[in-house]
C-alpha cells in the first residue's frame, strides 16, 4: 500500500479522552513511578493497526522517555527531529534510534542514542524500566525506556539530527483530555493516530506550539495506560 502524504495537524479530531480519568498526581512523582514499575501489574497496551502489526522483520530500535526532575514536577524531554533525516523528519520524538550490534540491551541503545543526540550524560539517568515494544509504520520495533533525569544535567542538540529540544509537563501528557484521535481518509483506506498538541489547540496561541503525534504520542498513550492500571 502506498503511504499517503499528509499534514497531520490539519486532519480532523475524531475524539478525545476527555471522558477518561487522569493519572493520580501521586503516580507522577519519582517515588510514585518507582513504585509503579516495581509492582508489575497486568495491563493492556493500546491496540495497534493491523497494517503495522503485519510488518515482517522490523528493525530493532530504542528510545529514552527522559523525565526531568524539576522543582515544579516531572517534565518529559522531547526533541524535534531535523528536516534532513530519512525517517520521521521534522517530527516530535524521544531521543533514540536503531539498536547497534555493540548495544548490550535496549536500555544501552536508548542511553547511547540520548547521549549522541542531545548529549545527555547516562550517569544522570535513573532507568525505571521499559514499556512494551511499539511498532512503527516505517518498520521499526521500538523499546521505550523510561528514566528519571537527575539535576544537574545539561543537553545540547546534535544539529545533524535534532532541530530543537524542549520539555512538556508530564501531568499534561498523562491527562487523557489532551489525547486526540485524528482521522486520515484517503483512497487506500483510513488511518487513526493519537495527537497531543502542546500547548493545546485553542489556548490563545501562548508559547511555541508543538504537535506531538504518531509513534511518540502512541508511546505516551501506552505510558498513560500503564500508569492507570
Automatic annotation (TrEMBL):
Its cofactor is Mn(2+); Mg(2+). The keyword Thylakoid does not apply. Residues 1-23 are annotated as: Disordered. InterPro entries: CoAse, NUDIX_hydrolase-like_dom_sf, NUDIX_hydrolase_dom. PROSITE patterns: NUDIX. It comes from the Bacteria. It holds the Pfam family NUDIX. Residues 58-190 form the Nudix hydrolase domain. The keyword Magnesium applies. Keywords: Hydrolase, Magnesium, Manganese, Metal-binding. One of its GO terms (molecular function) is metal ion binding. This is NUDIX domain-containing protein. It comes from Paraburkholderia caballeronis.
